[in-house]
Amino acid sequence: MTREGSTLLSRVAESVYWAGRYLERAEATARLVHVHTELFLDLPKAAGANWAPLLAVTGSGEAFHDRHAKASEEEVVAFLATSSDHHGSIVSSIACAHANLRVTQAILPSEAWGVLHRLHLWAGRTRNRAVDRRTRLAWTDQLIRQCQLFSGLLEGTMSHDDTYAFLVIGRDLERADMTTRVLDVQAGMLIGRHDGAGPYADLMWMGVLRSLCALQMFRRIAGPMVSGPATLNFLLRDLQFPRSVERCLVEISRALLELVRHDDPMAGCAEVQQLLEGADLASLGVDVPSAVALHDYADSLQQGLGKLHELLVTTYFQMEPSPAIPAPTPTVLLRV
Amino acid sequence: MWDGYDSPGCWDELLVDRKARYACDGVVRYLGLLGDDLAGRQAAAELAIRSMGITFTVYSQSANIDQAWPFDVIPRVISTQEWAQISLGLIQRLTALNLFIDDLYGDAKVVADGVLPEEVLSSSVNYLPQCKGIRPPQGVWAHICGSDLVRDADGTMYVLEDNLRVPSGVSYMLENRQVTKRVFADLFRDLDIHPVDDYPNKLAGLLADLSPHPGEVPVIAVLTPGVFNSAYFEHAFLAQQMGAHLVEGKDLVVEADDCVYMRTIAGLVRVDVIYRRVDDIFLDPEEFRADSLVGVRGLMRAWRSGNVAIANAPGAGVADDKVVYSYVPALIRYYLHEEPKIPNVPTWLCHRDVDRSHVLAHLDEMVVKPANGSGGHGVFVGSMATKGAKEEMCRRVEANPRNYIAQPIVSLSTCPTLSNGRIVPRHLDLRPFILSGDQPYVTAGGLTRVALKEGSLVVNSSQGGGSKDTWVIDPTVVPAHGHGHQVQGQHSQAQHGEARS
Q1: Nearest residue, CB atoms, A117 vs list B53, B266, B269
Q2: Same domain, B247 and B221
Q3: What is the share, in percent, of chain A residues with pLDDT greater than 70?
Q4: Distance between CA atoms of A86 and A292, rounded to whole angstroms?
Q5: Which of B61, B164, B206, B257 has CB 3.0 to 4.6 Å from B437, enough for a Cys bridge?
Q6: What is the pTM (predicted TM-score) of this model?
């Protein structure tokens, strides 16, 4: 059978892209909550650790403080995991992914849709378990497993066609974005400490790796010692680790190669890759001034990713309304 | 198990005097063996429905718009012998309706010959003057039809209405079968139950044949009003099963060459066939309702130019009118010179003075329906109405008689149904689906809808109705491995329950 060019609807491509982003966001946030909770179970109260960095990573500090006076554990976790009026919460992200893929149900393997549908119902039904410390880890575990089941089903049962490409692009763009956010927050914490990296530097960088599920893979190639530059190198430039920014960009360009009209987004992708290659990572994040530089650098990466998103929109999603037709009104595309 | 099961004054589809009806003994015996485990099977079915994501959408409940599909696990059974007769009747009916619609938008001989009164045509809201003079390929306007069948107390099967605009429910017929195959896997080995899953293939074949560009791989699109439509699940389901594109109005554009294109990531791609699930008047804001947000500007232009096929054709809904319905037996005689194989329910037309006085004088025994309603909305059942409701109905009929028809209350047949762990009789109807391709096709059975409330005659899912799987069984086939049921030798004509003309 021959394929006569792509017939993927722009609207469907956009829905699938957003679903990829939302599912990745849900899973990544669940990992963050999981790692942070484990960390807190280990730490004595006197250590004075707090939950504010989680808000910063997910970029939801402002939204949170609009509603809450102080960042207590339960309030932060409820906000990040289950709040229905916070778009970026895990439960909301699952709901958004569900709403987007519901529109495109017809092109997903029905088994995979069934998994997402059940996950959506389950997440809504069990939201109280996410907040309670005794049940929280089991809840995040289950959620991550269901997300993985969904990705796995698609990977193994859906044709790796144009539709699938947009799912991958959405997922990897979100993933790269999350990695840069985590680094940005680390930079913020370094700036806040007068002793710069200080004696706890290794522990802090270990925390960074853990929250991206990267510590084990990092040690396999870099050995037991954790340092700032080595961590940055791994999370930004490693070619094999699926959550490094470079690897995400490689995945995105591979997916783009399969698509028509990919010149502009490919160029956008290459721009971010150049930022990765050009940076002097050894001089970032070792003391306060270089932490400021790390913050600026993470910021420039995020801007590059934002630009890539815009290029995807203008190339593939924006339906040029012809004069006779009123501009389409978005229905279920919920964005942050 | 059947002690105390009684359906007074009604034909029960499964039992007669608490014994299995013809073709039902295998199922009835099996249910007896299951005993209390039947409730477990019902729970398993409900679980399967939730996990398969089978839903329908209710407009009013905005917080949770997807409702799990209400389903009763006990199947409804029809013998292949009876079904063969019914199928012939349904094909006969759709053939006549297509000749009628084609005539209506052509020379309207049916009016000139005095078979259909001029005033019925001129007052029909579904008649589209924009279609006058158009002739779709082979003169077929209604490619897909869903007709509602009901069975009266004496076993006669009647056609209650025809749905030619956007008949829905076929996906639930298919999903119901998936569910029963899971929970009654053993029965599918022992009984000769006719499969239903070939419907999407037949539909896809029919649509492909309509393409105005033969020789090219046709691009087929299912046009849906969108995710908030109550039948969206079905639109998505059918598109998926057929490998067609599921499009909304905003995905399509008609260019200066009068062809329909869809907006894709690669640019515009021509669409050859549209299976539309959007009502006529919303199809094209250029010619019908200008405020339609779900239509495609210029679609009628493209269709008229022969650049795109639309199923069902715009204008086909003229035969959905329940006033037109009352003329179908006459239309069958007029166009086919045959007697109708399945009778109509007697119908009084309120715009006729004689009929109206009769209806208003006997309101207690009548079902009054809007001539162009759907989904069971606005249906008035006289025997259940309060005094106030009756007076209100009278006022409405007097104010707009053309919009109402009345029928005697058909004591719909029943089928054993689980209700809080007990087996009780509940009323049901049946919607088979008919395709009018080169080889007309009728689904094996169809969608059985059941009124889950005691005594209720309203089966629509939007109003508390549920559904059952429908099994067309050949009772003369004995399974090879010998565990099957015995075939009963004697059965009367009434037990056959065959449709009579």
Answers
A1: B53
A2: yes
A3: 87
A4: 30
A5: B206
A6: 0.80
